[in-house]
Amino acid sequence: MPFGDANGRRLLGRLREHMAGGGTPQDRLDRTVRLIAEDLNADVCSCYVMRAGEVLELFATQGLSQDAVHRTRLRVGEGLVGAIAARARPLNAPYAWEHPNFVYRPETGEELYASLMGVPMLRGGQVIGVLAVQNRERRTFTELEVETLETVAMVLAEMLAGTGLVSFDELAPVAGNAVLPLRMEGLCLNPGAVLGTAVYHRPSVHIEKLICEDPEAELERLRAALQAMRQSLDDMIRSHVDMAGDHREILEAYRMFADDTGWVARISDAIRSGLTAEAAVRRVDDDMKVRLTQASDPYIRERLHDLEDLANRLLLHLTGGDPTAANRPMPEDAILVCRSLGPAELMDYPRGTVRGVLMEEGTPTMHAVIVARALDIPVLGRLQGLYSRIAPLDALALDADNQQLFVRPSDDVRETFTHSLVARQARRAEYLAERSLPFVTGDGEPISVMMNAGLLMDMAHLEGTGAMGVGLYRTELPFMTRPSLPDVATQTLLYQKILAQAGGKPVVFRTLDVGSDKLLPYWSNDAEDNPAMGWRSIRITLDRPAVLRSQVRALVRASAGRELRVMFPMIANVAEFDDARRLVDAELTRAAGRGQALPEAVCVGTMLEVPALLYQFEELLQKVDFVSVGSNDLLQFLFAADRGNPRVSGRYDTLSVPVLRLLRQVLDRCRATDTPVTVCGEMAGRPLEAMALVGLGYRALSMAAPGVGPVKQMLRSMDSRVVEAYVQRLLDLPAGSPRAALKAFARDHGIKVS
Ligand code: PEP
Ligand code: MG
């Protein structure tokens, strides 16, 4: 059944004129209900608006007693009007008194009216009021009349929200439990804790004009916008920009939905009923959202957000608006709510405006998280049903450290949270004050503590933390945030800047480590069943040597006159290291041949991330200048447990006996050949793990900047000989994890690990 008809269109046309007229918002509302009553041949037309506390207040009426306006209040669920709000569905009661929900309110004088038809006023999928018409005689309104009133109710809802007659805040979340405090659990992608205000990364679009003058022109606009949207979805799928996780599947579902003739037909019908293309999209979306929220099938409910996203995309094509909140005014303490973040999107926000990020998806190694780490923004991922639980401007307490989020926190939670934030600040101030103290254990054993970096802006942390250098510079990020492969000159400039910011401190550059979840927008690769074990990292750059050559060329140029330290990721065979190293040597020879200034010294090392390397270690150690243990990947492969999958990433402990034994063997073999070895995976930045590493004998660690201060405190409070003797004993334990024992040991020996 199509929305409205010629009569409906006429009513909307008259409404448009009324709305354009002058007077206060209340005057306009009064005129509107009069007009609707007249047009629908009803004796009464009343508009009820939802107020705080789930109460519907009579805001305007034609036909009922004017004394009842702003006096009559009905609870949601109470009476026919309350029932419409509760169910978010129209109600057509030819004989209202007989309806089981009927309640009589003497102040309204409604005893005169036999029939009632009402519809919910929806905005953003939420009921913000009820619009009802009544007649003295028994009357069954036609389906077309119901549809027309629904369209009018949608226009009224938008009008009300824009007039200031009721505050937007009060209209915000009203359905279900949406106003109650809530605790959600997710996966910590970047630690930290903040209080803030929810901001949708892709905000819903504001519609200026609701009623159209020329439906044909609107239909044409819709066609053009649909075509543009389909095109952009096709491009996105083709370029695999966001292929991480099930994002591609979701995109493909969108794409299918964008072709859904039923959806498009309903929008077209809404336009024919007199709405602008934007208002028609919103109207159909609201309708669908209400139906779907009432669906019991969780799969269908989950798809709700997809539909909303698609409608929003279409609206953006219609309005030519900015797709993200980055360039809009927003609260100073914004916590972004998103499904996932695309390349560089986080960097689009003005510095300092984003306090935290919440994602429905997300993995710890995705690039947005790497950026967040550089910016010191806490990130919590894998939060199911984020959009249905958080409304824009909701207060949030994000506690990424403990993998939890408090939505609309109670005063108690806020208070406790504020206390721990103060304590956190104090600890940070302490780390800052201690930044120039040397990295030595309590018994005077020097430990090299370096920092991991991935962005130029990370380099400022060298100064802020006092780290001794950069033990791992992830070079892939600049490649991911550009529209095309950066050329040698661009890379040279970048590496020069990095080295300049490092001052005299060493920087270990890791060559391109893309693939798996780190994708380049300009390289399309086929979807792989196991991307973490697929065509990634050194495998790509050895298969496409021109890419590695250009990177090494730039590194050689940038390091002229100083030391060049470079290492290769994901080496699985000695032959791969040989090939990569040959390429470095060739570049050095080439540079020398051209009379270029050369690096003062060159150190070429490897990451240890693939367990197979352990069984070629002796051969490898003869060829490398240093080894860096990438425990993130090494352990995921060792335990065959995806590091980004919360279902399995907790199945092993980084401090378990097999890990300690493996790390010990690596260290022993490196020591035997005098090969410097560093641990640069995430575990190195956690004080308890770092304590165990020093206990195993490691003397070089590289970690994300926030770990440097806590690790220094831990080091300075430990006696390395005592810890070493203790950890040595743990190696003989039967399998299991000595984590609890290590914690108790630290506590008993006054070692600061938390
Ligand atoms: C690692 O695997 O431990 C590592 C440091 O590399 P990345 O986290 O960049 O994969
Ligand atoms: Mg790795």
Largest sheet descriptor:
8 strands, mixed
Architecture of the largest domain, according to CATH?
2-Layer Sandwich
The domain count comes to 5
User: Any idea what the radius of gyration is?
Assistant: 32 Å
Q: In one word, what is the shape?
A: elongated
Query: Percent of residues in helical segments?
Result: 40-55%
Count of distinct strands = 22
How would you write the strand order of the largest sheet? 7-14-13-9-10-11-12-8
Based on secondary structure, the structural category is alpha/beta
The CATH H-level superfamily of the largest domain is: GAF domain
Which cofactors or ions or other ligands sit in this model?
Answer: phosphoenolpyruvate, magnesium ion
Give the N-to-C terminal Cα separation.
64 Å
| Strand-residue proportion | 15-25%
The residue ranges in which pLDDT falls below 50 over 5 or more consecutive positions are: 171-178, 240-247
Q: What's the helix count?
A: 27
CATH topology of the largest domain: Beta-Lactamase
Q: Roughly what is the average pLDDT, rounded to an integer?
A: 86
Q: Could you name the CATH class of the largest domain?
A: Alpha Beta
Any overview of this molecule?
The chain contains 27 helices and 22 strands. The protein has 754 residues and is of the alpha/beta class. The chain folds into five domains: 5-168, GAF domain (Beta-Lactamase), CATH 3.30.450.40; 181-203 and 325-433, Glucose Oxidase, domain 1 (3-Layer(bba) Sandwich), CATH 3.50.30.10; 204-321, Orthogonal Bundle (Enzyme I, Chain A, domain 2); 436-446 and 626-754, Phosphoenolpyruvate-binding domains (TIM Barrel); 469-606, TIM Barrel. The strands form three sheets. An eight-stranded mixed beta sheet has the order 7-14-13-9-10-11-12-8. It has an eight-stranded parallel beta sheet with strand order 21-20-19-18-17-16-15-22, covered by helices on one side. A hairpin with a 2-residue loop joins β5 (115-123) and β6 (126-135). The longest helix has 25 residues, at 215-239. It is elongated and about 100 Å long. It starts with 5 loop residues before the first helix and ends in a 6-residue tail after the last helix. The structure holds phosphoenolpyruvate (PEP) and magnesium ion. Phosphoenolpyruvate (PEP) binds at residues 365, 472, 474, 513, 609, 630-633, 680-681. Magnesium ion binds at residues 569, 609, 630, 632-633.
